[in-house]
Amino acid sequence: RLAATTPLGRLAVAARVRRSHGVVQQVGVAARLGDSRLDGTAHFAGGRLTAALDQLVLAPALVRELAPALDPGWPIRLRGTVDGPLGALDLGLHVDGGPATAELRGQLSWPARRFRVAGHVDNLGIAVVLKRKGHVRGTLELAGEGRIAQGGVVGTLTLRNARGFMLTSPFYRGQADLRFSGRSVELEQARAEVPGAKIAGRGHGAY
Predict the structure, then answer these.
(1) Contact predicate 175/157, CB 8 Å
(2) Alpha helices for 2-102 (secondary structure H)
(3) Spatial CB neighbours of 107, under 8 Å, sequence gap ≥ 6
(4) Quick one: which of 151, 145, 143, 97 has its CA closest to 124?
(5) Which residues face 157 on adjacent strands?
(6) What pLDDT digit, counting tens, does each position of 91-100 carry?
(7) Nearest to 137 by CA among 169, 180, 114
């Protein structure tokens, strides 16, 4: 157990460890920091990992401390699961922040550092991460695959069936294709329709 006082509030951490023949087989963790909290378990035996993130709640104050450029309007909550051998892990993640939700499923080969992900994002708005700027919100489907390399990610991400509102104008039939090469990203194509017009573009950048 660990307890301390921090500028973000009281920190309390409790861990449970189960060993078998000197080998750690199961770990459970519960942590609190102000209004943020973490609860999860992990079990590894016979080459198989089974883990559950029961809850991870990131309070706005903690997000601002970790990433000063962000200013979320609501706590961000995550729940997730991991199951399988290290070469073929099945992943599941649920995220919500205010009105926005995301459901993601994926596969990860840890030895090869390769991954695949697909999911649905509903009612995502800029206000989820920047509460003073709430003028864009939308729903979309995404799919991506690649590998961890070159100091970042090498792979692709596609966005489809995007629809929602920019200011007071609706947009629909939105889609985008992105390609990542280490720390750089290229927007190969993006387009959407608004009443009476079509919008298209492309670009590149780094992260």
Answers:
(1) no
(2) 60-66
(3) 88, 89, 90, 91, 115, 116
(4) 97
(5) 144, 178
(6) 999 999 988 9
(7) 169
Question: Which stretches does DSSP call E strand in 100-151?
Answer: 100-109, 114-125, 136-149
Token couple for 73: 């309007």
Query: Residues 38-61: pLDDT tens digits?
Result: 999 999 888 899 999 999 999 999
Question: At residue 197, what is the residue type?
Answer: A
Which residue in this structure is represented by tokens 């991870």? 56
State both tokens at 70. 């962000």
Which of left, alpha, beta for 151 (phi over 0: left; psi -120 to 50: alpha)? left
Residue 119, CA distances (Å) to 32, 34, 85, 129 in order: 29, 31, 22, 20
Distances from the Cα of 76 to the Cα of 39, 57, 122, 179, 181, angstroms:
14, 6, 14, 27, 29
Q: How many of the other CB atoms lie within 10 Å of CB of 177?
A: 15
Q: Tokens in use for 1?
A: 């157990």
pTM: 0.84
Residue 70 host element (H or E): none
Range with lowest mean pLDDT among 23-32, 78-87, 124-133: 124-133
Question: From residue 66, how far is each of 4, 12, 62, 127 by CA, in Å?
Answer: 19, 19, 6, 18
- Residues in the chain, how many? 207
